[in-house]
Write a structure and sequence with these properties.
It contains 12 helices and 8 strands. The protein has 314 residues and is an alpha/beta fold. The two termini are 36 Å apart.
Length: 314
């Protein structure tokens, strides 16, 4: 079953929350309106700078500028709103290929989701939010506290479990994370859970030993269920900008990332990195997060996101 957007008003809150209510691209659409089929080069240069500062990337920024020029020459940009629409269409077109909702395949019981990412991305919080979402959708959920390097992560996940009335499999700090994941899979199967969310340590992508431990978790799960994990989510902090590209590359090479969750979009002007990631890796963006509450995580929508980049939430 495909995951559907849960909040009808999420787009409105998205515009209000992204970059703390300010549009990422400070574009004067009236200035971009063409004169005799041409847009002033100085104005285009300003726009390209805005795109680069938002971490859209060099190639994508150039493509957007060229599209604007073509639309102007064809007479399609007669008014400021036409300019905005053209920009939204360009951005949304680049993001559309990665707008792929997560499918919870009922033929796998439990459907195992491995949640990965470095420290500080909001990974454990995201795991809890996903548990809330799946339970709201009618799934029977279990959590596994396989981030055994941080006692605080174990306690945080237990708190989510108590809040949601969802069982949590945990061991003592410094226990073998793979053993926690294995025990959780056994328990989830015994309790006939639909979804098992495995929270892993906030691994620095430059630490090969920790990446090896993540690979071990995958191997242990696969020994018990040849298809597990059925989804590997990488949680990325939008505020890290271009560093997110490096993380996507390192984790993707190590554990075959199948989906992304982009967090902390409410406090950054670097949200254009989604476009850079989409063009470079093509990994589906499953969810985006714009705040602390469970309702602030929702299914990624390319057009809504592109529109929010160019619309103030004030």
């Amino acid at each position: 079953m495909a995951d559907k957007p849960a909040n009808p008003g999420f787009f409105k809150r998205l515009r209000k929350s992204l970059n703390r209510g300010r549009s990422w691209l400070s574009v004067d659409f009236a200035r971009l309106a063409p004169n005799r089929g041409r847009i002033e080069e100085a104005v285009l240069e300003e726009l390209e700078t805005e795109l680069l500062l938002a971490d859209v990337g060099v190639d994508a920024s150039h493509e957007i500028i060229e599209t604007l020029k073509r639309d102007a020459q064809r007479g399609n940009l007669k008014e400021a709103e036409n300019v905005r629409a053209s920009l939204v269409e360009s951005l949304a077109g680049m993001l559309a290929p990665v707008e792929v909702p997560l499918e919870i395949d009922a033929s796998h019981q439990p459907f195992v989701i491995l949640v990965t990412g470095i420290n500080g991305t909001g990974k454990t919080t995201t795991t809890g939010k996903l548990a809330a979402r799946f339970k709201r959708d009618g799934h029977k959920v279990m959590l596994a506290a396989a981030d055994t390097f941080r006692a605080a992560a174990i306690e945080q996940l237990k708190t989510w479990g108590e809040r949601l009335d969802v069982p949590v499999v945990a061991q003592q700090p410094d226990s073998d994370p793979a053993a926690v994941a294995f025990d959780a899979l056994q328990a989830a199967r015994a309790r006939q859970c639909d979804v098992l969310l495995v929270d892993t340590a906030g691994r620095l992508h430059t630490q090969s030993g920790l990446m090896d431990e993540l690979k071990k978790i995958r191997r242990v799960l696969a020994k018990d269920d040849s298809g597990a994990p059925h989804e590997v989510l990488l949680v990325l902090d939008a505020g890290t900008g271009q560093n997110a590209l490096s993380q996507a590359e390192q984790f993707g090479g190590a554990v075959d990332v199948s989906g992304l969750v982009i967090t902390k979009l409410d406090g950054t002007a670097k949200g254009g990195v989604l476009i850079a990631i989409a063009r470079r890796f093509g990994i589906p963006i499953r969810y985006i997060g714009v705040g602390e509450s469970a309702e602030d995580l929702d299914v990624f929508n390319a057009h809504d996101f592109a529109a929010a980049m160019l619309t103030s939430g004030e």
